[in-house]
Specification:
Aspartate Aminotransferase, domain 1, Aspartate Aminotransferase, domain 2, homodimer, 3-stranded antiparallel sheet, about 425 residues
Chain lengths: ~425, ~425
């Protein structure tokens, strides 16, 4: 297969007509498919049905401390949940706070508290500063960027390489501007690229000397146990790495069971140094009487321990791997060798990232939408929704059944090609 | 029985010795009782066990809209939960947002959003103002005051009469100081006095013309369906009353099932005008992906409708009424006619409020604690924990079994008397 860029104008026009014929056939099907959100499919949700029924009488409502989880409880979670999820995030039970159903909510709350009171070591609440900036490795997770936008925090894009954020750039920026208060990270099976930060990147974080003494790494470890097969990425423990350099207060870590048990009814958690946890708990007292401990207990009863979670994740992988394979195989078949797209082949997580030719992402997504397939909006993976090269598209292959997914991806590849041909004809 | 204040010094000393003898006997018992928190007892929690088991398979995880409540959902709740709890708060389903497990958390979040962005109609975020003040009818709920303290909001005490807040004082303050941004209210079976605002008080709120155009009434209707018997207080609908005066944006209402189903695992909600709800939902998008819809569905399945909640609350009342009666009867028997205490006899809610002689509340609570009975700290019912007359004590009779409660209240009455005699001997 030859590269589209070597095509003559006539060849491009021929290709375009051919693609438009195929596109018309897709449109005639009246598809209504959605690949826009990283949602588990119904078969995945069924894997955790046991969570729902494992607590039903007054006796099994008690935590190991003897407290009745139906009643008002503690601020930071029941001991057995702290132990289980500390294991999952690779921290100690003294370094974790168990929250409600949403880790995004815990991140938002961390920002809200930082704005109103500052973090441990802040001279001033962030809201009292003239300017607060945040580093945003891109492509990244749109909901992280929405939080910054909500709080009026200026976002600075940093390139995400195949090893993690461009740490030379992170260093150059963070070490020379004390209004830069932190960085967003999705270190494992990242959203959207599915890459995992290398040890060198984690070490570079530990070597970082930010100008702002209250700089914080927001380490959203959403996919820490979300492997697709036995071939797994490993992520170096940032908390212990920072601690070895005397900087353990520099990171806030987050995780959840949103894609382990249920997205809507899972358990979220935040981990950090003991000093950060103590500081946070003092503020949390004003915020709530405490999270839903019954739901914590349900999760502990169902998963029992980290091995239980790992076994459970294999069942998710068995459902998800064929979907990822279907996408990657179709990309290989339809798009490789044409010089019009590049994509990632993650070993875990929920997404695949694809780059079109520059200036083709929006058009590709638009073409898909017109033919009945909803894709994550182009630009969503960049701060303010603006992809400077208009090329990155996030593919979320998990929700549709395989047959629907295959149809959607066939259409998607067609749209990538059509948008590329249109672009090349403009030149 | 004669009043203590008419006693001679000799009589007081005799009485003191007699009381100390009894107190020693109590101390010898080595009691370990807790009447400090408004927690339901285990028998009350058992009433709602059906909530836990009513959802267990994939089919009954679906809301009436067809959405799978296990997966990511909506920001503001499933339709059937909005309908049920709108009925409970006496608003329309378009005027409600269903939240997580804690209405206190929703109030805190409302403040946080107001600080960062302001409320509908604010010129500036509250955090950007030099001064923000709040009116705090007293005695009141300590956790409300903690929220203000957390956000650095200056609290101004206003007297709570038997009809509700002293509205002449509220008017005088709110209409002449635009840094006063709102007022805390627990309008029904108030915490701690158990009184319900009269129609005149609600009408006075609707007639209020606050100097701050973004003034907000925080209407914490925590005990809206929490009657102790068929003799029930009724509360005029503040939202419709305000609407009739063109001021429907002036109130935020809150409620929850914390003391209907489970304190730790209930459902919380916020109600307001449609304009306020739209404004809030726009901000909520940054904050979370959505609350636990499965728990909403559990509650709807179990309670079905408002009649279901009302019937359920009768079962709570059957457990709680004897406890309230035990306290009030003992107060009557031990304290009446002595001129040393006054108390309320609520028809609902979770608390009884008692005023000692001025300057005797702390001492009374301290004496109880020394003999093994924990009472809500004196002062907790006032901003900054400071009761200017040191006389108000909140009694929370719900958690201990009746026999323990009777012992605790016997001791409490003894301590009220002993503290009073000590005080009178000082004079």
């Amino acid at each position: 297969m030859s590269k589209y860029e070597r095509f003559s104008k006539t060849q491009l026009l021929e290709k375009k007509n051919e693609l438009i014929e195929s596109y018309k056939k897709f449109k005639a099907k009246g598809l209504q498919l959605n690949m826009s959100r990283g949602k588990p499919g119904a078969d995945q949700l069924d894997l955790s049905l046991g969570v729902l029924s494992c607590i039903s009488d007054s006796e099994n409502c008690k935590s190991e401390s003897g407290s009745d989880c139906r009643n008002y409880g503690t601020l930071d979670g029941i001991p057995e949940a702290k132990r289980l999820f500390a294991d999952m995030l690779n921290v100690s039970p003294e370094e974790i706070i168990i929250g409600g159903n949403s880790s995004l909510n815990m991140m938002y709350d961390t920002f809200a508290r930082a704005m109103i009171h500052g973090v441990l070591g802040s001279d001033k609440p962030w809201a009292k500063l003239e300017k607060v900036k945040f580093l945003c490795p891109c492509p990244g997770y749109d909901r992280h960027f929405t939080i910054c936008e909500h709080f009026g925090i200026e976002m600075i894009s940093v390139e995400n390489t195949s090893e993690g954020p461009d740490m030379a750039e992170v260093k150059r920026l963070a070490e020379n501007d004390d209004s830069i208060k932190g960085i967003w990270c999705t270190p494992k099976y990242s959203n959207p690229e599915g890459i995992t930060y290398t040890d060198d990147v984690v070490d570079a974080f530990a070597a970082l000397k930010p100008a702002a003494k209250d700089f914080r790494i927001f380490w959203d470890n959403a996919y820490c146990v979300h492997h697709l097969s036995e071939e797994q990425d490993t992520l170096k423990n940032i908390l212990t790495t920072l601690r070895a350099n005397g900087k353990e207060d520099m990171v806030f870590m987050y995780g959840s069971t949103s894609k382990v048990s249920f997205p809507g009814s899972g358990v979220a958690m935040m981990a950090a140094s003991k000093a950060n946890i103590a500081f946070t708990k003092k503020q949390l007292f004003a915020q709530t009487i405490g999270p839903d401990e019954l739901n914590q207990l349900r999760h502990v009863r169902f998963f029992k321990n980290l091995d239980g979670i790992k076994e459970h994740m294999k069942k998710h992988a068995a459902i998800l791997k064929p979907k990822f394979d279907a996408v990657i195989n179709t990309f290989e078949k339809e798009l490789s060798g044409k010089g019009i797209a590049e994509w990632t082949s993650p070993r875990g997580g929920y997404f695949i990232s694809l780059n079109t030719l520059d200036g083709c992402a929006k058009r590709t997504v638009e073409l898909c939408l017109e033919a009945g397939v909803v894709i994550t909006p182009a630009g969503a993976t960049y701060p303010y929704g603006k992809d400077p090269r208009d090329r990155n598209i996030r593919i979320a292959p998990t929700f549709p059944p395989v047959a629907e997914l295959e149809t959607a991806i066939d259409l998607f590849c067609l749209c990538v090609k059509l948008a590329a041909v249109e672009k090349l004809l403009e030149a």
